[in-house]
């Protein structure tokens, strides 16, 4: 699905794209969740040359061991007050990486699907080594 561009700098029509990312926190502490969410979201926006008006919606998930804060609240503190945000829990799979925050962001972008940069920071690079190697994370 494409939509006419509303950005003056866009070379052509914008498409709806989805971009993924993940990060891990050291402990279930609100300040750590807020900081990690902000950093991950910032990297996703920076690497994909996106800004707030480009965003359609963002889904945040956390592993079952993160319960002290909503990642969406951190995004609101960063100024994303007009973007629909949703937090939900990952399924608790035995042996999965603990204390992980994941993002699925939907945005308008002139980039092709294959040109979107998914961001897996730190230990979460192991979740998607195929994507992490391509972006240097």
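Q: What amino acid sequence fits the structure above?
A:
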């Amino acid at each position: 699905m494409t939509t006419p561009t509303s950005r003056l700098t866009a070379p052509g029509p914008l498409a709806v794209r989805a971009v993924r990312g993940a990060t891990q926190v050291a402990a279930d502490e609100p300040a750590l969740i807020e900081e990690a969410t902000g950093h991950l979201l910032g990297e996703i926006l920076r690497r994909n040359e996106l800004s707030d008006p480009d965003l359609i919606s963002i889904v945040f998930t956390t592993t079952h061991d993160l319960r002290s804060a909503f990642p969406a609240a951190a995004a609101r503190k960063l100024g994303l007050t007009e973007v629909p945000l949703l937090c939900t829990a990952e399924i608790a799979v035995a042996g999965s990486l603990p204390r992980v925050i994941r993002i699925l962001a939907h945005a308008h972008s002139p980039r092709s699907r294959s040109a979107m940069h998914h961001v897996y920071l730190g230990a979460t690079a192991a979740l998607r080594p195929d994507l992490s190697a391509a972006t240097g994370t």
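Q: And what stands out in the fold?
A: The longest strand covers residues 14-24.
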